[in-house]
Amino acid sequence: MKKSNSPSKIKRLLEEHGNEIHSEFFEYPEKPAKRTIDEYGDRTWTGYGDVSMSAYDAAWLAMIPNKAYKESAVAEEFSLAFPKCFEWLISCQDEFGGWCNIRGAGAIIPVLAGLLALCQFRTRSGAFFEQKLSEIGITIKQFYDVINKATEFARVTLNEWNVDDIDFVGLEIIIPYHLNALKKSYPAIEFEFPEKQKLLKENKRKLSLIPLETIFKMAKMRQPITIIHSIEAFSDVIDFSRIQNEGFQALNGSYGSSPAATAAVLIHAKRWDDKAYSFLEKILQVPGTRFGCVPTISDLGTFETAWILHPIGDLILKLMKKNITDQELFSKNIAFTQYFQALHKFQEGKIRWVSWDNRIPADADNTVVTKWIIRQFDSKSEFNLDVLMKIFYNNEYKYFVSFPGERTFSCSCNSQVLVLLLLEFEIAKLQGNPSVTIPVMTKTGLTQQVKLKQVILNVVKFLMAQRTKNFVWLDKWNKSPSYTTFKVINVLLSLISHPELLEELNLTVNELKEFCRKSIDWALNTQHEDLSWGEPSSISQGNIEETSYVIRLLKTGIMNWPEDINIHNSLQKGQSYLMSHLDEAMCDPKFFHDKQPFLWISKQLYTVPRIIKAAMLVAAYEE
């Protein structure tokens, strides 16, 4: 196998990422953390991060009329605020009829939004339809060819759809909104499909649980609210003039760190929003791809940083245990640790994924991953579990939610919480306090003290119960079973070093290993002939991202079954596959955008190249 040069590439990745966060990041890592609070007053920063383009968000920007038409509603004055996005819809329709280059559930939300953008143009241009098309270089035939192809693709896809396939963010609100808007549009488009009544029933249930007036009160008091990220789906039930204030809008003009949500305000609010328009102008400066000309989200922020540093931090811990020193790598890691410490200081221990918008609620994932890094690399740090328990622990079902009030759970999130809880338990034992207690909220709203050990046991039982019949775990944030499975197996097998926990679980070491071994065997049995794993990509039978996750799973496997030749062989082959594509993946800026599947789940599927690069480099590292 070609010798890995991933150490130098890891340092280069950290250098590139730190410099994008702030030009003086490695000299003053605490400085950019100030930008994450309104008090800093930065009205121009749109954050950082490498994320794929979004057909869904491009479609919403393609719906925005110019300011003159918005004020007059006169068809003759109609033009588009962002004609580039509409032209992209016409010129970049894929072979299937959508705009994502995929079939199935992942294409539904983008194709419905694209259809709505086309219909909105037809409606607003009125008698000047042909003229307005001509002004942007589009013929009537082109227009109707695109709309007819998209309609048929949407019809076929909806008929084949199982509502429970993938839990896209807000799908039970977003899809019904688009279906209703299309039904009222010109030309009117109505879809009937087997799962429609089930979807509409869930839509009605979800809307009944959203107290809109309470949300307005929360925003007035400047409390974070999740709904703002998908506010476009409420265009028919909310007076958007009520959200044109700093309770909803970030200092830089964005709503919910979402181009689609921001576009919806420009479309549906009575008053033109200059700050929102300026924000969208800024984010359109990035080069477009065949997947869109608008970023999926306008800032990856802390999420990107934490998910880069998490695997790299894990690798550094392993190097330190082997007394291997890489001073340059370690010093860069410390700079990011200091950045996370400053984030916890300014965000009061509740970290959100977006770097700059105080209106986005904190999430458990980013809170625990950043704190795990701090606790591992700053021996003097402290951590109060009270905040984590109060905001994210569901005491009724004994698991952690990603966001307050979340409808469903995430296995990957709970595995990461468990990693931090086990670290805190270990620290408590070293300090002579194994019976440490933490506050838990009861159904009645009262607080009771519960042993940390009991919460750990609850989460372990919850995770073990979520394994599928194929011996893998699935998740709401990433559609790959390998992503969540490697995380869960890693933390479960770490319980071997906590015999007192295994005893409470009525598990022997052999029983735990037997439980986990089934997932290792799943990995061994699903490797492709070309040595990769996962969904197909344009370069191989599998893809880089899922192959990286499985390799990390097999590395854990070797630690627990060191004599197993099958694990060794499969791991070596997988690393050979990664090494054969390493240079292209690291050097081609469009590699993950154009040649790899999108596996991360939001309103639509997206990809995060730097996060995948970090996973790949750690997987390729020859420890």
UniProtKB/TrEMBL annotation:
The lineage of its organism: Eukaryota, Fungi, Fungi incertae sedis, Mucoromycota, Glomeromycotina. InterPro entries: Terpene_synthase-like, Terpenoid_cyclase/PrenylTrfase. GO terms for molecular function: magnesium ion binding; terpene synthase activity. GO terms for biological process: diterpenoid biosynthetic process. This is Squalene cyclase C-terminal domain-containing protein.
